[in-house]
Known about the structure:
This protein is an all-alpha fold. It is 77% helix and 0% strand.
Amino acid sequence: xxxxxxxxxxxxxxxxxxxxxxxxxxxxxxxxxxxxxxxxxxxxxxxxxxxxxxxxxxxxxxxxxxxxxxxxxxxxxx
Length: 78
């Protein structure tokens, strides 16, 4: 099918451009937040870095345990 035979390609519709604008704006905000967080981490001293690492490891352990117990709980409903 040629482009001239296609009824209004999706990228020609206003909804597409509005969604693209929203996604681009969101992406820019998240990128800015990422840059700010990275700069904050770069300012940490070695002691603070170790505290962040320990907190992150603990967080990951807790999330893993939560996933395991949730799976067990859900298996009871099957």
